[in-house]
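Example record

Each entry pairs one chain with its bound ligand, zinc ion.
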Amino acid sequence: MQRDEDVPETKIDRAIALRGLFLFLFATRAITFAKEDSMRLKFYGTRGSIPVCDASFQQFGGNTTCLQVTFPDTNRIAIIDAGTGVRNLGRDLRAIGHKQDQIAIAFTHFHWDHIQGFPFFAHAYDAGQKITLLTLGRDQTVSNLREIFEVQMQAEYFPVQLDHMGADFEFLQIADASKHFTGINNVETVVSAQRHNHPGGAFSFRIERNGKVLVVCTDVEHGEQIDLRLVELARGADLLVHDAQYTAEELQKRRGWGHSSFDQAMQVAEMAGVKRLALTHHDPEHDDEFLQRIENLCRERFPNAVLAREGMEISL
Ligand SMILES: [Zn+2]
Ligand SMILES: [Zn+2]
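C-alpha cells for the complex follow.
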C-alpha cells in the first residue's frame, strides 16, 4: 500500500522537477534572446521589379520590396520601402494588436516596386496614426517628397487621395540620419545612408544598435568595379541584405538596369567581412526551383548566405 502511494508521488515529483527545468531553460532562453536580440529583420517583400503570384514563386515570395526592422527592447518597428509586401506587414501589425504612435517608413528610392503597396498599408487609413515618410542621406534628387505620394494616388490612378486616407503624414528628408534616430528611444541608434548607382539614384542604409549592425543595400548596380563606398558601409556587418537580381550572365545583358549579380553580392560580403548575407530583389523570371539552385551554389562560396524568402525573420 505504502509503496503504491510512493510511486505516483515520485512521478509527480519528477514531473514538477521536469517542469521546473523547462521553465528554467525557457527563461534562460528568453533572457539570452533579450540580450542578443538587438534588431530583428523580417522580409515582407523579396521580389524585384513587379509582384509575381504564380504557384512556382511562393517559396521565395511574390511581393515586392518591404522590410520590417523590429527593436525588441522598445517594441517599436521601422519599415524600409513600401513595395506590395507592406500590405501584409500592416495586416500582421493589426493581428498582433501592435500599437505605435509614430511609424517611420524610409525609402531607398521611389521606383514602383518600392512604393506600390503604400496605398494598401492599413495604418495609413487610421485617423490619428502618425506616419513619417523619409528619405535618408545626402545628395537626394527628390525635391518634393509629398508630391511623389500625391501623384501616385491622384484620381486618375487611385480612388482615395493622399489627403483623404486618414493618417497624419509627415514627410522628412534627413541628410544626417544618425542624429535623428538616436533621439527616438534614447538607445543610441546610428543610421548612415550612402547614395549608390541606380537609374535615378538609390540609397543603402546601415543601422547600428546595441553593438549589432544591419546593412540594407538594394537596387544597386556596381558597374565594372565593386562600389567601394558600399564595401565601407557594409564593413563588419552582422547582416548584409544585398540586391542579387541576376546571374553573372544575365547582368551582361542588363547593363544600366540598376541591379547586381549573386556573385557581386558575395564579393561585397567578402570584401566587407560581413557575418551573414541575405540576397534579395529576386528577378520576376526566377522561380523557386531556379532560386533554390542559386542558393545552393552561393553557399558553396559563402556558407552564411541565404536567399531571402517572404516571411523570413533574422535576429541580430
Ligand atoms: Zn526595385
Ligand atoms: Zn529601382
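The chain is about 35% helix and 25% strand.
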